[in-house]
Amino acid sequence: MFSIAPRRGWRQVGLSVSLPGNDFRLGSLSMLRLLPLLVLLTGCSSLGYYAQLAGGQWQLLQARQPVAALLADPRQPVELRQRLQHTQAARDFASTRLALPDNRSYRLYADLGRPYVVWNLFATPEFSLEPLTHCFPIAGCVAYRGYFDEQRARGAAALLRVQGLDTEVAGVAAYSTLGWFDDPLLGGMLAWSDERLAGLIFHELAHQRLYLPGDTAFNESFARFVEEEGLRQWRRRHGLPPPAPHLARQREQFVELVLASRARLQQLYAQPLAVEVLREAKQAEFQRLRRDYAVLRDGSWQGDGRFDGWFARPLNNARLLPFGLYEQWVPAFAALFRESGGDWRRFYARVGELAGLAEEERRRALVALQAGTGFAGPPRLD
Hints:
Keywords: Aminopeptidase, Hydrolase, Protease
Number of helices: 14
GO molecular function, one term: aminopeptidase activity
InterPro entries: Aminopept
Distance between the termini: 41 Å
Largest sheet: 3 strands, mixed
């Protein structure tokens, strides 16, 4: 299992095994058969860890119901059917207008009776912003571990803190298996706005359209662009106004604050200082981050405290890890979309060319797109 970095509510991508002909009931596959298949894919060394993966995935699969059946059932609450009807309109739009996969993902619904489906555990050394990574055969190496049980996640975090690491445990409201299984809408999602629900569907189906193991910034920036452009087209289609510009700008400024703090910490940790000095300087940096946020909130934001909740909890290195992953290459993909004439299928083919490049060559191509010099495509061999 691996997970994708958060933005306002967090998301998880979990990896399981695809079985020929599986449907939402999972046929006759037993829990005992699912467990070794998960072990094979995850390569985890801890029996307890992959056992909870199998148990959590099994619970999720068993809870799924076809949305079409719920919509046709007059016994279901009207509000539930209205919300599900909206998701299916967005789901249809994703495939017909955005050329995203047309499958059973998000045409199923599962209510687990809890706000989060999984909890992500991030960890870093005390004086480093390099994450503790976990590598998987298909997903590549990622900077977090996912748990279907919150207490297991917090227990694992406590053990890492004893070893001197910084940790962060974050609830994940949405879940995807990159198409290995038919991913359901979850009960907790239906409290979201119509736009956020549509954006989630576009984003997660983009991961199914293309996923590059081991390159989180590439994957998340690509899916983020598809989400944002998809929502722009969705709004135009339905005659909806664009979001308030000041809200997007506030989020940008918040991310900029955190990234600036992270950059200063990286400079600090690179210095040959005594542990006590590093510890004191680290806390001083977190105090500066809080002050900078307060100045911004109470000044140009006119008291809008939409990010107060994030600052209400203790700050450490692990809490800073996810920032920047979703946004890093979004302008590059926007430029590539323009180069593709706004044609989604051509755009996806061009993204596939980028994904096929070696890591450093891919980065140079993204930088060129970001700078406005374009992407000529992979070198020709003839």
